[in-house]
């Protein structure tokens, strides 16, 4: 991680829906070459935070800059530096993999030669599925197409909302490897996840959010070390050793959110 290179700056972010404040004074930076995880129980404010970063909703207060461009003041510049993973349901199920790749390349003003297309299909391990319809792909295959399209314009900031939910362990590992490869190329990656295992496996830093506030922000191991002696964390421990999940439950409480 290169500390000097803040790709995403979030400062004093507040998001409200009517009179309800979903995000309350959240600040964090994400740097080139790091994977940053947003963790929190259902309703904590993760998606609201991502939506504000994407510029899909106007914050009640605070500033968000992507590569120095304010998302509200300079949305086109900010978005040019950002890749947002689309949900699989956003793609036309009747289009083939090739058609989808060509379509989205076109959206970003790129035209793919036959040679480039073959290289991409090989890279995302879908050589044999080039003419398959998107709707006929497995969940893991759809995620690979979706992740590739997110980064087709080589954005500096990549936003992934629960990228591996529903994938089998093999597909999840493969997606982790792709996300890590993006990190190693210098992209800044922000992802949300409910998987503590995922956060520990690939995130360089995480923020645990609850009720719209950041409770703690650091590397997974530092967060475990910092909170391992708290009584709520020890009480949450199930395996005799303190895990990130124990800290998460200890900090956010064991009650299921409505
Ligand atoms: N469009 C909306 N109108 C009103 N309230 C909303 C809206 N979107 C979200 N909320 C509320 O804002 C709070 C934060 O929601 P958000 O979707 O950001 O949480 P989350 O951390 O992404 O949750 P999850 O893990 O369930 O996806 C919740 O209480 C939610 O009910």
From TrEMBL:
Domain ABC transporter per the UniProt entry, residue ranges: 8-236
Record-linked PROSITE patterns: ABC_TRANSPORTER_2
Entry's Gene Ontology molecular function annotations: ATP binding; ATP hydrolysis activity
Keyword ATP-binding: yes
Alphabetized SMART domains for the sequence: AAA (SM00382)
Keyword Transport appears in the UniProt entry: yes
CDD domains in the cross-refs: ABC_subfamily_A
Matches recorded under PANTHER family: ABC TRANSPORTER ATP-BINDING PROTEIN (PTHR42711), ABC TRANSPORTER ATP-BINDING PROTEIN NATA (PTHR42711:SF5)
Family of this protein: Belongs to the ABC transporter superfamily.
Name of the protein in question: ABC transporter domain-containing protein
